[in-house]
Amino acid sequence: MATSRGPALGLWLVGIAIAAGGCGTSGNAARTSTAAVASTRSAEDTASADAAPSAHSFAWLHPARVPKGWQSVRLVGGATLAYPRGWSAMRGDRGTATAGLLDGHRRYEGYLNLTPRQGAETQANWRSFRVRHNAEEGERAVTLQASAAGLGFRVGRGACVRDAYTTATSTRYVEIACLVRGAHASSVIVGAAPSSDWQTQAPVIERAISAFAA
Asked: Is the pLDDT of residue 49 over 90?
């Protein structure tokens, strides 16, 4: 099942690590499983601790048309992802859309992904679901920074979170992830960037999310 995720440069390395771990003893597997459960619980505790709504953190969200000169990718269900000049469309899971900005070393400076809702995520559980999902994907130190529900988009309404996490390559990312219900279906749009680039890339990511049409 395709799930909307953040930058996946470290996933290949994670896959190798998992495969290598599978060649070891069952004790290693048990320790890995225990660590994964502990990470998920820690992420859920972090989300629960930050119980106050933070809609002001999404005051930048002003639904608007796609800026002139931007490119767009439309999914079969009608949801559309827009991305700016200098960014490139990238391969992703079937039925999804991904765009990114890479530096000279092929590392993400900015990332956008659009995926149809396919799991148990809902407007009501989005804040806890997203944090738990990131932990289950192998991200570490997942921290919820802000969340809000009932936000207006070009088409439909949605719930958003802003969180931070560390990948298997030890890169710290900040992401904004929104679950938006449109006229016919719900979609998840994610924008992320390394924390060191966040101040530069956040306005672009926020503009892309503001232009999103579910």
From this structure: no
Number of domains into which the chain is organized: 1
Prediction pTM value: 0.78
Residue 2, domain member (yes or no): no
Q: Does 1 fall in a domain?
A: no
Range of the domain at 203: 11-210
Residue 72, helix vs strand vs coil: strand
d(CA 147, CA 81): 21
Q: What is the pLDDT of residues 129-173, one digit of tens each?
A: 999 999 999 999 999 999 999 999 999 999 999 999 999 999 999
Other C-beta atoms closer than 10 Å to the C-beta of 210 total: 18
**What backbone phi and psi angles, to 5 degrees, belong to 84?**
-85, 170
Q: Is 152 within the bounds of a domain? A: yes
Q: For residues 110 and 204, give the distance between their C-alpha atoms in angstroms, rounded to a whole number.
A: 9
Determine phi and psi for 120, rounding to 5 degrees.
-95, 10
Which helix (H) or strand (E) is 147 found in, with range?
strand 140-152
> Of all helices (H) and strands (E), which one includes residue 108?
strand 108-116
* 6 located within any domain: no
CATH number at residue 35: 3.40.1000.10
CA 53 to chain centre: 20
